[in-house]
Amino acid sequence: MGAPVSVGVVALDPVLEAGTHTTLLACPELTVCEPAEARVAVLTVDRLGPGELDMVRTTRALRNGPAVVLVAGVLASGDALHTLAAGARGLLVRRDADAPRLAHAVLAAARDDCTLPPGLLEQLLDRPSDPRHGTGGWTDGMLSDRERSVLRLVADGHETAEIAQRLAYSPRTVTTVVHDITQRFRLRNRAHAVAYALRAGLL
Questions:
Q1: CB 30 within 8 A of CB 108
Q2: CB–CB of 67/41 below 8 Å?
Q3: Where is the HTH luxR-type domain (predicted)?
Q4: Residue 115 gets which letter from DSSP?
C-alpha cells in the first residue's frame, strides 16, 4: 500500500466543513491537510449554483492544482455536466458520501479518474441529446462503439484494469482508447472526455 493521498476540505458552511473533515479522518488511505497543500480537494455544498461552480474553478486554479471532488446535498443531471465541465473529477450526493464512498471518489480523482453517483449516471445516459445546444465539435460518427463502452465505464468510476476485465480488452488497449479520445478532441483528461461526451449526448 502506498502513501496516503493528501486531501483538503473546502466549504462555505463550517458545519458542512467539519462533517466532511470527520468523514475523511475515518479513511486510512487519506491524510487531511489544507486545500492549498492537497492533492485532492473535497468541496461540500448544499446546492450547485454559479458561486459553487466558481469554487470548483478557483480550487482547481490553486498553485498545487488539486483534483476536485464535489459533495452536494442535491444534484441534478444538468448540475453534473456543469460541474464536470468546470473541472471536477468526482460527484457525490451528501446522503451517499459515507467514508468508503468518499474515499473511493477521492482516490479515483487522484488517479485522474471520474466518478458519478450511479443513479445520476443513468439519468445522464438516458437523457436525449438536444441539437439546439450543439456538440462542441462532437458528432455521432466520431466515437466508435468501443470508445463509448470504455467512456461509460470511466464515467462510472471503474479503474483501467476493471474496464479491461469487463470488456475483455487488455489494460493497454483501454489506456490507448482513452488516450486517443483525449488527444483527438484536445481534452485535458478522462473527466473532461466524459463531460464532453455526455454534453454531446454521445454516451
A1: no
A2: yes
A3: 136-201
A4: B
- CA–CA separation, 82 and 86 (whole Å): 6
> Which amino acid would we find at residue 87?
G
The grid coordinates of residue 87 equal: 473541472
- CA gap 71, 86 in Å, rounded: 14
Rounded to 10°, the helix 190-199/145-155 angle is: 110
One digit per residue, pLDDT tens: the chain, 203 residues? Answer: 568 899 999 988 888 889 998 999 988 999 999 988 999 999 999 888 888 888 888 888 888 889 999 999 887 766 777 787 778 888 888 888 899 999 999 998 998 887 877 666 555 555 444 433 444 444 444 678 888 888 888 887 788 899 999 999 999 999 988 888 877 766 777 777 777 677 666 65
The backbone region for 144, taken as left when phi is positive above 0, alpha when psi lies in -120 to 50, beta otherwise, is beta
Residues 31, 11: Cα–Cα separation, whole Å = 18
C-alpha 171, offset from chain centre: 21
Compute the distance between CA of residue 112 and CA of residue 105 in angstroms, rounded to an integer: 10
Helix (H, G, I), strand (E, B) or coil at 90: strand
pTM above 0.70, yes or no: no
